[in-house]
Write a structure and sequence with these properties.
The structure holds two protein chains of two kinds. Chain A is mainly β. Chain A contains no helices and eleven strands. Chain A starts with a strand and ends with a strand. Helix content of chain B is about 0%, strand content about 50%. In chain B, strands 2, 5, 6, 10, 11 and 12 form a six-stranded mixed β-sheet that branches. Chain B is globular and about 45 Å long. The mean pLDDT of chain B is about 90. The chains are: A mainly beta, B mainly beta. Chains A and B meet through strand 9 and strand 10 of A and strand 6, strand 10 and strand 11 of B.
Chain lengths: ~120, ~110
């Protein structure tokens, strides 16, 4: 089946540094990718929707200058947490949408997530 | 390794019908199991969860029981409503909570 690879699975960084998280669709083309974050004991929260070749659409309350999203190809989207601070420590997960075969066949595949810890 | 297999959709039901969406998993250790729901135009929301074998998660009339012997976590609701139309995702959380594994989602449409 379709696979979404998310890397790294865990990262620890110092406050003030930037961290890049990659999300790749390995065997399908993803016109749309979504980025979520999850705080402990809470549900996933949609951060942004990213369409290949265009600017990401951010959800209300999500700082676009802090969470840079690049979707340069149909198989790769990256999330960069710039100047990370301890409050950015969270679990980040991506998902990729494919509509191969038509809208009725829309499917969503998830990466396995990235645990970010900012010291 | 860890993985989740979920019943493929789409599923179309009449209002007040009984719903079952099958979900089975493979896992090392003792993961937590979740059902997430995505309503049209919105992000994922946690619907219910179970953290150990024989636990039953329930919310909004939906239920799922963590069955270790059958490695299943099927979602059920006795009487669906039009407002239940959404995409439902079964998910497995690793022991450490650092990784999630999702099913591919099942689209449910409830017609009046």
């Amino acid at each position: 089946g379709a696979v979404v690879s998310q890397h790294p699975s865990r990262v620890i960084c110092k406050s003030g540094t930037s961290v890049k998280i990659e999300c790749r669709s390995l065997d399908f083309q993803a016109t749309t990718m979504f980025w979520y974050r999850q705080f402990p004991k809470q549900s996933l929260m949609l951060m942004a929707t990213s369409n290949e070749g265009s600017k990401a659409t951010y959800e209300q309350g999500v700082e676009k200058d802090k969470f840079l999203i690049n979707h340069a190809s149909l198989t790769l989207s990256t999330l960069t947490v710039t100047s990370a601070h301890p409050e950015d420590s969270s679990f980040y997960i991506c998902s990729a949408r494919t509509v191969e075969g038509g809208a009725a066949n829309e499917k969503l595949f998830f990466g396995s997530g990235t645990q970010l810890s900012v010291l | 390794g860890n993985s989740v297999t979920q019943m493929e959709g789409p599923v179309t039901l009449s209002e007040e019908a009984f719903l079952t969406i099958n979900c089975t998993y493979t896992a090392t250790g003792y993961p937590s199991l979740f059902w997430y729901v995505q309503y049209p135009g919105e992000g994922l929301q946690l619907l219910l969860k179970a953290t150990k074998a024989d636990d039953k998660g329930s919310n909004k009339g939906f239920e799922a029981t963590y069955r270790k012997e059958t490695t299943s976590f099927h979602l059920e609701k006795g009487s669906v409503q039009v407002s239940d139309s959404a995409v439902y995702f079964c998910a497995l959380g690793s022991n450490t909570g650092n990784q999630f594994y999702f099913g591919t989602g099942t689209s449910l449409t409830v017609i009046p």
